[in-house]
Amino acid sequence: ACGYGVAWPQPDLSMSWLERQADTPYPVPLMPGGCGAMRRALFDRLGGHDAGMGRWGSEGEELSLNVWLSGYEVWVVPDCMVRHLFRARHPYRVMAADVLHIRLRLAAVHFSWQRLARVLDHCRDEPEFGRALAALIQGDTVLRRSICWETRIRDDDWWSRRFGLPW
To answer: Cα dist. 144→3, 20, 25 in Å?
Structure first.
């Protein structure tokens, strides 16, 4: 797979790779984990990686969204290549409820209540929705939300308009 940043075209927050847009660096909505670099001081200011996200995926997307909403930008450098080993199987157990919990947590931490409601409504028919929602409620989601919102200068509506995301 070859991608130049990622987006969430649907409210379930499933990642979609973006096509190359230019030969020179340009802004993208999100960057997957392992494909980015930033100054340590900014990483610390933004609260680092969200430990409540669990073991599997979306940490780069969560950090990218936090970067944008805190007034910074995420750019792709199209000539840089990061290779990732995609295995046929995960070397550890990945549960559907955990993956859904990560997506719900990301929305609960960073989105307005209206956009969070859209995500919840879109995901409510998932078989593991109850378990994922219970994990969200039992965790430190509210604390993480308050930490992230301290650095906010933009909201998720601005971000959605900026990248033409339809939902």
So the answer is: 30, 33, 31
pLDDT tens-digit readout, 16-64: 999 999 999 999 999 987 778 899 999 999 988 888 887 677 888 999 9
- pTM, two decimal places: 0.90
Q: Please, which residues have CB within 8 angstroms of residue 47's CB and are 6 or more apart in sequence?
A: 66, 144, 147, 148, 151
